[in-house]
């Protein structure tokens, strides 16, 4: 019985019980019927009591085979119907779960009743739905981790390449000074230059280490007033712009509440403002304002071609017109902005403007 499937097992159990009841019932009839006392009424209201054991026994013996046959047939039919009614929904659930094992998104257990079997089918459907959601979430997490690892490798490669140039220059200068080659014998001139290159190298290493920690920063979001944050954040850049004869305009609402990690948001916007001021020439303008739920930073400059904009968000990339560190920064500003805004799930766009010519950075809050 343990190896039988559900339908024959239910059928045999049900048939056995029904046959047991039939046999017991007919046995009782066969034993007790001959003992019954029959009462016959006459027209003269005379009651004649007789015992006709032999007559009743013969009648029961004649009716018993027919009764047993009919009872057996009824038992088999009822057992089949009952077994099918019980095993059918369970077989359908089993077939559906086999499809679920193959992760078929269309798999679904049919629900025809509200009893325990219907609840079982509903629970299986809910469990499978949660499983698919978990798998999709894990796939997204896996893709995110893979992209982060790829970005980390690319960043380390770019950092190694970026550090190689000042290290090589410093090493060559020191080697020439040690060997006393030509002009490098003038230690008073070249030692300060070596110190300056070492400080530049130290600054680059510090920036690289700070940038590498961005993905590890976990700051919980909280309710902040974006207008107040931006007013404080723009003060130093307004001073820098004024020193370079750049017009810096700031137009913010009195209050603009938002839920976000203030520290990370400040760092991202700070890099955007620094880039806007750095790449704006004297006599031009930088504008910071709110447009609906978006923060807009515009600066008048030579527009960057569309096919080059995506390169700006790679580490250590600088446009052709500002390849030097003195004029073009370290190439990490927009990379940091991209990393921080993605970690905060804040969409943004960076596109050229036609009138006036320049660039527009939009952060959607």
Strand content: 5-15%
Strand numbers in spatial order across the main sheet: 4-6-7-9-8
The CA-CA distance between the termini, in Å, is 66 Å
Structural class: alpha+beta
Helix percent band: 55-70%
Mean pLDDT: 80
How many alpha or pi helices?
Answer: 9
Global morphology: elongated
Spans of at least 5 consecutive residues whose pLDDT stays below 50 are 46-50, 323-328
Taken in chain order, the helices and strands follow as HEEHHHEHEEHEEHHHEE
Question: How many whole angstroms does the radius of gyration measure?
Answer: 44 Å
Task: Please give a structural write-up.
The longest helix is centred in the middle third of the chain and has 64 residues, at 116-179. This protein has helices spanning 6-32, 53-101, 116-179, 187-212, 226-243, 262-278, 306-309, 325-328, 333-343; strands at residues 38-41, 47-50, 222-225, 247-251, 257-260, 285-291, 294-300, 348-353, 358-364. It is α+β, with helices and mostly antiparallel strands and 365 residues long. The radius of gyration is 44 Å and the shape is elongated. Strand 6 (285-291) and strand 7 (294-300) form a beta hairpin. It is built from nine helices and nine strands. It has a five-stranded mixed beta sheet, covered by helices on one side. A two-stranded antiparallel ribbon has the order 1-2. Mean pLDDT is 80; it is low at 46-50 and 323-328. 60% of the residues lie in helices and 13% in strands.
């Amino acid at each position: 019985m343990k190896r039988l499937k559900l339908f024959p097992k239910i059928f045999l159990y049900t048939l056995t019980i029904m046959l047991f009841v039939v046999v017991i019932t007919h046995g009782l009839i066969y034993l007790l019927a001959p003992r019954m006392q029959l009462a016959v009424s006459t027209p003269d209201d005379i009651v004649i009591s007789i015992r006709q054991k032999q007559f009743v026994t013969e009648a029961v013996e004649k009716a018993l085979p027919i009764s047993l046959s009919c009872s057996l047939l009824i038992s088999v039919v009822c057992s089949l119907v009952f077994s099918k009614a019980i095993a059918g929904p369970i077989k359908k659930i089993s077939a559906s779960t086999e499809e679920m094992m193959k992760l078929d998104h269309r798999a679904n257990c049919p629900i025809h009743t509200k009893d325990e079997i219907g609840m079982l089918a509903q629970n299986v459907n809910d469990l499978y739905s949660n499983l698919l959601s978990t798998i999709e979430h894990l796939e997204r997490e896996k893709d995110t981790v893979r992209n982060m690892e790829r970005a980390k490798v690319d960043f380390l490669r770019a950092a190694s390449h970026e550090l190689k140039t000042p290290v090589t220059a410093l090493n060559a200068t020191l080697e020439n000074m040690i060997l006393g080659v030509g002009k490098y014998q003038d230690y008073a001139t070249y030692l300060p230059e070596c110190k300056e290159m070492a400080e530049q190298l130290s600054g680059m290493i510090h920036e690289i280490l700070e940038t590498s920690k961005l993905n590890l920063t976990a700051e919980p979001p909280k309710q902040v007033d974006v207008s107040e944050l931006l007013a404080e954040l723009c003060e130093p850049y307004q001073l820098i712009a004024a020193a370079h004869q750049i017009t810096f305009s700031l137009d913010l609402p009195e209050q603009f509440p938002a839920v976000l990690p203030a520290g990370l948001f400040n760092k991202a916007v700070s890099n955007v403002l620094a880039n806007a001021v750095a790449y704006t020439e004297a006599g031009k303008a930088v504008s910071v304002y709110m447009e609906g739920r978006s923060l807009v930073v515009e600066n008048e400059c030579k527009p960057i071609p569309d096919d080059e904009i995506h390169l700006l968000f790679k580490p250590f990339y600088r446009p052709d017109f500002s390849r030097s560190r003195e004029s073009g920064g370290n190439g990490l500003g927009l990379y940091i902005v991209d990393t921080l805004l993605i970690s905060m799930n804040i969409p943004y766009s960076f596109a050229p403007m036609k009138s006036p010519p320049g660039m527009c950075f939009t952060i959607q809050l």
